[in-house]
Amino acid sequence: MISYHTPAKPDYLLIRNSYTNEDAVIDLKMSRYKRIAKGFLNSLRMSSRILKHIVLTQAKESYRPTLLNNFLNSLRRFYGDVVYVWTVEVQEERREKYGDVVLHWHMLVAFEEGTEFKRDDILRLQGYWKYGHCEVIPVRSVSMRYLLKYITKALDVPLGLTYQIKRISSSRVEGWLKQSMKRIMQAYEFFKGMWPEKGLDALSEFYWYNGNAYLWDKWELAGYSGKRKIIVYKKPWSGWYCVATVSGDPF
Predict the structure, then answer these.
(1) Domain count within the chain
(2) Which residue among 67, 79, 108, 163 is least packed, with the fewest CB closer than 10 Å?
(3) pLDDT tens track for 175-215
(4) Residue-range definition of the domain harbouring residue 199
């Protein structure tokens, strides 16, 4: 059922282009996951890295919130600066054959350039994962289409579990990276005149949300204190504006 009042957490935005009068529907959940994917891909463009596709399979369903964190913490302690994105799915063949609902994770991990990934490294990663099988697959390059294949599957496959878990997540990525390269370069051109020596690092000086850059301003008044966001850069207007928020299926 469609609700045209403003829900606490709308599922979709109905938008319209003021130039063409064209209408479109934005899936807010998918939009968020696309930003995660863009952040990962753009972070790869900023530095050369060694890519691996890691599949973590559970021998039996034993999910706990710390289960994946333990693996990632061990990874970071040994390899330092790693960038990653992961999705969680159900082991389809196992469910079809035995009816078991057991999770597994697809993880793309970008190691620092120069990392010599050999047999010992594979054995090390397998040792970090103590809940089943760990497979390490070489990857030459990734694209948005490659990532969306796993993201879409993670969203579409019903987990059938009694608890809520994240289906998709990533390592921390600067907010300015979670947009198209065209938008990034527009922002870069804006700030280049202020700090020409910093290059793209200038974008890291700000808090970014939805393609806009903000600074936090602390204030104190009559014994009260707080902070507020002050916008310092607003992305160029695309012509699209929100017509309505939608809760439920808009189709």
Answers:
(1) 2
(2) 163
(3) 999 999 999 999 999 999 888 898 899 999 999 998 999 99
(4) 180-220+227-234
